[in-house]
Amino acid sequence: MDLLKLLALDEEDLKIVSAHVQDAVMKVGDLEFVAVTKQFVVPMYRFAWEKEATERRPQPERRNSLMHFTRVQAAKLSGISRARPDEVLSLLAVTYTATDTPAGVIDLVFAGGGAIRLEVECIEARLVDLGGAWGASSRPEHKIDR
Fold this sequence. Notes:
There is one protein chain. The protein is mostly beta strands. It has helices at 11-21, 49-54, and strands spanning 5-8, 25-27, 32-34, 39-47, 61-70, 72-78, 88-100, 103-110, 115-120, 125-135. 12% of the residues lie in helices and 51% in strands. The strands form two sheets. It has a five-stranded antiparallel sheet with strand order 1-10-5-4-3, with helices on one face. It has a five-stranded antiparallel sheet with strand order 2-7-8-9-6. Strand 8 (103-110) and strand 9 form a beta hairpin.
């Protein structure tokens, strides 16, 4: 098993990280903003899309992973309640919008309309697999309106 380790320092890097965390699941209570160190930590179980792209008919797989943002000035939740720590969120995308380059906002967009907005000094994000992997019961699918 190859463990994924990615670093994002610009918008293009962040798009790559976003592709790897699409359909990751996590619990609200596991999300943590550490204001004193300006870090936002996202423990997750990500769907291993890279395995899907490199193997013929692979067994779908999820991996225990951690996404970590630094230089975070503020974190704001929308459509997500900290009062429900066991609620499971499904991540759709991670996006960046510049405000005063290199500063900007990073949005974590979740299925069902929830979002987390991180106000950042600049883009500095890491994604690492922590080692655990197991067979997923299915592949995530998204209906596209045409």
